[in-house]
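Quick one: structure tokens for this chain, please?
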Amino acid sequence: MNHQDVRKGITNARFNEKNSSILFTEISIVSIAIGFSTSSWILFGVSLLGLILILQIKTLALILCVIFSIMWAVIGYYLGEMISGTNAAVVLTIIGFLAGLGANLSALEWVEDIGK
């Protein structure tokens, strides 16, 4: 392995680690929303631990990443509608989904690297 490969690996690992904070923030928000909406600390804790454990099962982790990316697309849609109507909503929906998917998949790569 040459110097450039090592540098690329370190840079990629740092990028993935930064994106992991996005994934864990999404997990926290969903768990808080579940706990708050049900007024249950138990459901908050179970959902938090359950979502973190899901990250250890490749297929379920990918599904979770897509769901979170869809949530970013929905946010993009509503922001676009507020800003400038349907055209902006469509563009921001696509950008939100792709950006969310990219961030979540790189975070998932970091989770896999840490688990090794």
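The chain has a mean pLDDT of 91.
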